[in-house]
Amino acid sequence: MLDFLTQKVHDENRQGEAYAPFAVDENQYKKHFYIESYGCQMNFADSEIVASILQEQGFGATRNLEQADLIFINTCSIREKAEQTVRKRLTDFKKAKKSNPGLLIGVLGCMAERLKAKFLEEEKLVDIVVGPDAYRSLPALIEEAETGQKAVNVLLSREETYADIAPVRLDSNGVSAFVSIMRGCNNMCSFCVVPFTRGRERSRDAASIVAECETLYREGYKEVTLLGQNVDSYHYFDESIGEAVTFAHLLEKVAMIAPDLRVRFSTSHPKDITEEVLQTMARYENICKYIHLPVQSGSSRVLQLMNRTYTREWYMAKVDRIREVLPDCGISSDIIAGFCTETDEDHQDTLSIMEYSKYDMSYMFFYSERPGTLAARRYTDDVPLETKKQRLSEIVALQGRLSRESNEKDLGKTFKVLVEGPSKKNPDEWMGRNSQNKVIVFPKPTGLKKGDYLEVTVTDCTQATLIGNVKREK
Ligand code: 5AD
Ligand code: SF4
């Protein structure tokens, strides 16, 4: 039940959700691939790079499993549950081989390295296993697999950023797109498997990022989200101008492409987000006033065990500073319940820092030990599952109240909304987001198109959504 709740919160922001791609033209290609993605936005962005590499090889995307010659599942190993889901899907896919013996099944992404032997040899679930830095080798691996060999490449790289590959936008609304700006992570938070599955941090060539955003804008996109595990540590030395580009510089370069191209970014590490980034956000109207600032825990003792390198007080001061520089900024968080040695008092500290920070939204999890991480090696996973679930349910309930209170504060306010399309629940209503990343639903005015900007006045709300009426077209 709790996991379901967590998942729901996730789905609102397109994280943690599987999807099948839209085929641009399913009949244009003789061969087809089907890809399903799990986990973070980074994984979804990677699937678009994979799609580009496969398209070069003559494979078109399909969302129809039966039409597929290749099935890929882009995996996440951040929590144990994600691994269980993938195993189940692979078993489903394997059944499809009965009616289509030439079908190849591949595992991509974060689970590749750890589970390659299991998936390939022990359980014979898949034909191809490719890690997040090895997608360029896909064409060769597919050829190998076609001859009946097991094809594997899980090597991590210190350089690969796929800077020159133009992603094929999958399942896109044509309005907002993700742009990967860096890969890997050097932070070593003790609970986190990412530094092991995605390798060392490296930043993508700034010019290629700006060029990709310009192309998106020319194609009609109105919003780009710059993605990285820790965007604030973006650092690229641009040889052509002999200058180091920081994240604040990069944000500015992208914001300058066009005033009606919105810029978002994710994820920020509280220790790394700089004053310069906040000031840059304040200077540009089109840099959205929204920061995802994962706290993980509100207890300084637990934060130290997590190797987050900040204390409770330091985090609270960062929130204060954001509110000073950007008074209307939305803030969201990631929170882990029941990390090793967490006491009830530590848990109370988490609840009180949530109250203090007044998060508009949070992704909430209970701790799940991941093999190979610092925490797995150093600490005992000693909080009973029942206690983790109880604490998580308190965190989820509190976030529910905070989200509702945050939405109620917006009643009567008018926001500039970027229109994304019809609302999922009622096609007569349309939805978009404000700068703070809140979803607003409103009756569709005639002639409205995706990608338009509108002024919407909030008349009502639920915990998850603002409800409003269109004021006037901008
Ligand atoms: N257990 C539970 N949650 C985790 N996260 C990362 N690793 C774990 C883990 N082992 C959460 C963190 C992170 C988010 C992406 O996933 O909150 O910010
Ligand atoms: Fe994991 Fe920490 Fe890096 Fe985020 S910043 S990916 S939580 S190690």
From TrEMBL:
SUPFAM superfamilies: Radical SAM enzymes. It is found in: Cytoplasm. GO terms for molecular function: tRNA-2-methylthio-N(6)-dimethylallyladenosine(37) synthase activity. It comes from the Bacteria. Residues 171-405 form the Radical SAM core domain. Monomer. Keywords: 4Fe-4S, Cytoplasm, Iron, Iron-sulfur, Metal-binding, S-adenosyl-L-methionine, Transferase, tRNA processing. Binds 2 [4Fe-4S] clusters. One cluster is coordinated with 3 cysteines and an exchangeable S-adenosyl-L-methionine. Residues 31-147 form the MTTase N-terminal domain. [4Fe-4S] cluster 2 binds at residues 185, 189, 192. Belongs to the methylthiotransferase family. MiaB subfamily. The gene is miaB. Its EC number is 2.8.4.3. Its main location: cytoplasm. This is tRNA-2-methylthio-N(6)-dimethylallyladenosine synthase.
